[in-house]
TrEMBL record:
<protein>
    <recommendedName>
        <fullName>Pyrroline-5-carboxylate reductase</fullName>
        <ecNumber>1.5.1.2</ecNumber>
    </recommendedName>
</protein>
<keyword id="KW-0560">Oxidoreductase</keyword>
<dbReference type="GO" id="GO:0004735">
    <property type="term" value="F:pyrroline-5-carboxylate reductase activity"/>
</dbReference>
<keyword id="KW-0521">NADP</keyword>
<comment type="similarity">
    <text>Belongs to the pyrroline-5-carboxylate reductase family.</text>
</comment>
<dbReference type="GO" id="GO:0005737">
    <property type="term" value="C:cytoplasm"/>
</dbReference>
<dbReference type="InterPro" id="IPR008927">
    <property type="entry name" value="6-PGluconate_DH-like_C_sf"/>
</dbReference>
<comment type="pathway">
    <text>Amino-acid biosynthesis; L-proline biosynthesis; L-proline from L-glutamate 5-semialdehyde: step 1/1.</text>
</comment>
<keyword id="KW-0028">Amino-acid biosynthesis</keyword>
<keyword id="KW-0641">Proline biosynthesis</keyword>
<keyword id="KW-0963">Cytoplasm</keyword>
<dbReference type="InterPro" id="IPR036291">
    <property type="entry name" value="NAD(P)-bd_dom_sf"/>
</dbReference>
<feature type="domain" description="Pyrroline-5-carboxylate reductase catalytic N-terminal">
    <location>
        <begin position="13"/>
        <end position="106"/>
    </location>
</feature>
<dbReference type="InterPro" id="IPR028939">
    <property type="entry name" value="P5C_Rdtase_cat_N"/>
</dbReference>
<dbReference type="Pfam" id="PF03807">
    <property type="entry name" value="F420_oxidored"/>
</dbReference>
<dbReference type="Pfam" id="PF14748">
    <property type="entry name" value="P5CR_dimer"/>
</dbReference>
<feature type="binding site">
    <location>
        <position position="64"/>
    </location>
    <ligand>
        <name>NADPH</name>
    </ligand>
</feature>
Amino acid sequence: MANIMPIPTESCKVGFIGAGKMAESIARGVVSSGVLPASQVRTAHLGARRTVFESFGVKVYDQNSQVVQDSDVVIFSVKPQVVKDVVMQLRPLLSEKQLLVSVVAGVKLKDLQEWAGHSRFIRVMPNTPAAVGVAASVITLGDAATKEDGELISNLFGAIGKVWTAQEKLFDAITGLSASGPAYIFLAIEALADGGVAAGLPRELSLGLASQMVLGAASMATSTGKHPGQLKDDVASPGGTTIAGIHELEKAGFRGILMNAVVAAAKRSQELSKN
């Protein structure tokens, strides 16, 4: 294997294979944060998505092959069922001078590396809050990816939220928690808002309060450094309203239900990754 040269961030050209919502979120974040100018970001599309990317300065080609030929970092952001065909089709154009990245759920590095013909690959698991710049992304490095490669990708994905590094064996559990987790919270917000309506609040006010309350609670959990149990205790005064509500949640097995949801989603991710 030839010596792998670091890719300078300031001159790095990033290409997206796939022009969907996740690619858009990452590209917008990278551009709006100033990590890269729009002139160094590119993708390919022939339909309506072309206009979306062009609207914030990204270069849009007609073919994926053109994106690969004009990129230092190639990010695969396509559906899991087509990623093998896409990577195999582009394989003749891929070189070890390029850093390859996958944000495709459930597809392992060993398969990606085999299809691409080299192992300078990084796998990333972001989540849908990338669309509003508060993603939780986890990265794991392939066999030939360097520390500098990891830092470059952490920098790029840091533009859309927070980034962690973990071993790939943890990715199914990460999928069950942070990738699927936003849906659990959306369900909770909807249920809390319904509770507000049941207690007499107008629908719009109830939904607004529920959404803002979840945002505020999450912000406290991430910024105060306190254990969530302590934050809960700080709200629940003796004989008060909050402990009465918590008592009902405990009777219904609230914490166990959430734990089971994460484990079930992780198990399903594991099943899908074997297909």
